[in-house]
Amino acid sequence: MDHAPNAVATPIRSICCIGAGYVGGPTMAVIADRCPHVQVTVVDLNAARIAAWNDPDLSRLPVYEPGLDAVVGRARGRNLSFSTAVDAAIAEADMVFISVNTPTKTRGLGAGQASDLRWVEACARQVARCAQGHTIVVEKSTLPVRTAEAIRAILAAAERESEGPTPSFSVLSNPEFLAEGTAISDLEQPDRVLIGGEDPAAVEALAGLYGAWVPPDRILRTNVWSSELSKLTANAFLAQRISSINAIAAFCESSGADVQEVARAIGTDSRIGPKFLKAGPGFGGSCFQKDILNLVYLCRHEGLDEVAHYWEAVVTLNTWQQHRIARLVVNRLFGTVTGKRLAILGFAFKADTNDTRESPAIRIAGDLLEEGAQLAIHDFKVPAERMAADLGLEPTPPDAGGGPGAAALSGEGAWWPAASPEEAVAGADAALILTEWQAYSALDWAALASRMRQPAWVFDARGVADAAAVQAAGLRLWRVGQGESAP
Ligand code: NAD
Ligand code: UGA
Questions:
Q1: Is the CB of 286 under 6 A from ligand 1?
Q2: If pLDDT is split at 50, 70 and 90, which confidence band does 164 have?
Q3: Structural domains present in the chain
Q4: How far apart are CA 43 and CA 123, in angstroms?
Q5: Could you confirm whether 261 is annotated as catalytic?
Q6: Per-residue pLDDT tens digits for 64-74
């Protein structure tokens, strides 16, 4: 499509965003910051989350993102508020964003692949019940293609059933492309904003909001289905690049090639480009796997088995990479980690976030716990309760004298949170770098090595450690896509 932006749009005065998560919170904070004349209310069922968004101490917001505290600090209490009063916020709004979770279904039809749309449907019904006058409903969540059809059907029933002044609705798709850790800069300087819709006035009303800070040529207009599918496709392509480089990383390790050199060599080809070519422990995060599996499900549903199989391989390779790294650690440590202490450096799925959803650390630590390892886990932003929930295991610290805990003696896997990398490596046979926190590239390996049990290893699954310093400290080093080197 790309219809000319000449439709007459009524300016938006009041926005409600349902879902105060990693997308809803930062996205609405930036909209409120850039559009001070628009009242923005972010609502959620989760009262604890809303309370955290309202915490006077901006370091305690529920989402950690560099720069988020400053944006919230400027807009909160002016034209940005966080509330649990969902119905009232919908009734007040000219535009309602649906930004709720859309995880993979865990049971029933499509379990393990299809998106669970129950929260989206609940939102649509709530909007249908509470909206007043004309309301533009915006899909911000990542959704299967043609979800807008279902939302429209639910809203249309409200239009018919309404007893008071008849509400009316327009449905738009406006997927979010921010990445965690860089959410604020992604929102403030997006590569593009995508708006899918059939009602030109609604499309222009939304484009008008973004137009407050996004250059016009970066606001793309498409039909609704293209917009919905573009989101799934963007994530599939990004994840595919990671699986591709991780596949080559494994081959580098067995062939003597160096994946960082290969990535640089291919990335200078302007058709390939340098981004998203970092080999690592596999992609994590709440979306890549979920969105690809959703695409796989939809393709299979359409009878496109080969297409489904093609994209499914991206996820299969990713899972394999995570198990491969855990296996490799066990093999290098003389074939057993039972009762051995290992330091896990990094638990978040990437640097600069407190999010651990689908983090590679969960699977890798899980495999090592299964082998009976004793893990001291360090992360700069992930609290111990989150680690315990993700691992499905409560922490059991080593005994007070620093000797092996009871779990080690029984051969059971155990873990405990470490307050610093120094604490994590105490008595450890190996340190595994699983998140690329900046500080892990500047560790004092000589000091750390003196606290480890020799011969000790560094397994650098992110390729960020200072290799010369590791080796100078007398440690053995394995790096993803580069293989191992003795001190
Ligand atoms: P999230 O789980 O952090 O937040 C979703 C919030 O919605 C939760 O706080 C939940 O309590 C709330 N919620 C659910 N149903 C509700 C209802 N009926 N009424 C009120 N609140 C309700 O999820 P997220 O990471 O913000 O992702 C949201 C959507 O955005 C997903 O579809 C995701 O695929 C997509 N997305 C996420 C990212 C990301 O980086 N996390 C990026 C782009 C797109
Ligand atoms: C990703 C996309 O980048 C966003 O555009 C999208 O909006 C978002 O998913 C979503 O839909 O949720 P995000 O998952 O937050 O964002 O973070 P990424 O930077 O994409 O990283 C995802 C995973 O891939 C991380 O585990 C990261 O460490 C890994 N990765 C990334 C690599 O292993 N190598 C790379 O070169 C890049």
A1: yes
A2: confident
A3: 14-222 (3.40.50.720), 223-487 (3.40.50.720)
A4: 11
A5: no
A6: 999 999 999 99
